[in-house]
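User: Is it possible to get a 3D structure for a protein together with its bound compound? The compound here is uracil. I've pasted both below.
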Amino acid sequence: MYNNWEELEKSIINCRKCKLCQGRNHIVFAEGNKEADVMLIGEGPGADEDREGIPFVGKAGQLMNKAFDGLKIDRSKLYIANVVKCRPPQNRVPEEDEATACLDYLRNQVMLVKPKIIVLLGSTALKNILGKEYGITATRGKWIERKQIQYMPTWHPAALLRDEAKKIEFWKDLKEVCKKAREMNLEMEKN
Ligand code: URA
Ligand code: SF4
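Assistant: Yes, that's possible. Here is the predicted structure of the complex:
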């Protein structure tokens, strides 16, 4: 673990710790406020993210931005990262060895940001952060506290593209996050 951003960011530049390094154009490290109260964790970069080097800029990200706009969430106040930093081929779910190799970076990011709330976007984030025993269908929308961090699992925004009911639940879960953030006096909404 690195105790400063400079060393952590330097350590990942030429990372070849897993086979996802082979197909990548950009390592997608994160976006946002390094002092955020609220952090979001997705699965891994898609084609658009791999091209631009920024998380959640493709279709799923644009849908998420719409929810942010509707709920007056300020994206620049959040810290957004993924379980794996390089794009899995055909956007498949990251394999166990890939997630394991990459998770040290994410843990280090959490350690440095020190968020009070972490939103887990989808099954991959949920299982890799809280444990394989958790299922997204049963867990989403429910707060889970671990080591003084409040976790809110919800749908991955890509799942919303295919399912209108999930859109409503995603919105509801984000609204719950806003409510909790307000109660805890945290920064995430537009001023
Ligand atoms: N899906 C993810 O999980 N992360 C991204 O950054 C983009 C799409
Ligand atoms: Fe390294 Fe993570 Fe990319 Fe694998 S996915 S090569 S561990 S940065």
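The chain has eight helices and six strands. Residues 164-183 form the longest helix (20 residues).
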